[in-house]
Write a structure and sequence with these properties.
The protein has 150 residues and is α+β, with helices and mostly antiparallel strands. Helices cover 29% and strands 25% of the residues. It is built from 6 helices and 5 strands; from the N terminus they run H-E-H-E-E-E-H-H-H-H-E. A 5-stranded mixed sheet has the order 1-3-4-5-2. Strand 3 and strand 4 (78-90) form a beta hairpin. 16% of the residues are buried.
């Protein structure tokens, strides 16, 4: 829109400029991906390829998740595309951390801190639903908004 010379001298409303400046690039053609939100500290680890195991509660909408599926993790305006390598089911968070290894879940936190963080996100009633681990691999690096000039 802004690259079109016909519109070079046109005035734009604040709303139009905001829409143009914050629009996400189009998703990769042909890749259908489930979208999942992540807190910034976990998103950065996934985007860097350091976090290879994502833990979720076994909600009904995740029951059909399988190897080969794609997940687009989102944090604010940033996103990263991953592919599911493996899905495993466990009965508790302790079982997950012990089986998958704390460094795969969060390489920056010790086991006890990880358990405390997970339990802050998911209460005991959620853990009772069962725990799902998703082994992921990066497909595309994170996309970030363009930095503004000085």
């Amino acid at each position: 829109m802004l690259a079109d010379p016909e519109h070079f001298y046109r005035s734009y409303t604040t709303h139009e400029l905001d829409r143009v400046m914050t629009a996400r690039p189009p998703a990769e053609v042909g890749v259908r991906a489930r979208e999942m939100n992540l807190y910034r500290r976990y998103f950065d680890l996934v985007a860097a390829g350091r976090k290879t195991i994502e833990i979720r509660v076994q909600y009904p909408n995740l029951r059909k998740l399988k190897a080969g599926d794609h997940i687009r993790f989102i944090c604010g305006r940033d996103d990263v595309l991953t592919q599911v390598k493996r899905v495993a089911r466990y009965s508790s968070f302790e079982e997950v951390i012990d089986a998958e290894g704390p460094s795969n879940v969060n390489p920056d936190s010790p086991r006890d801190q990880q358990l405390a963080n997970i339990r802050r996100i998911y209460g005991p009633e959620k853990e009772a639903l069962g725990v799902l681990t998703i082994e992921i691999a990066l497909v595309t690096p994170a996309s970030a908004p363009l930095e503004e000039g000085p």
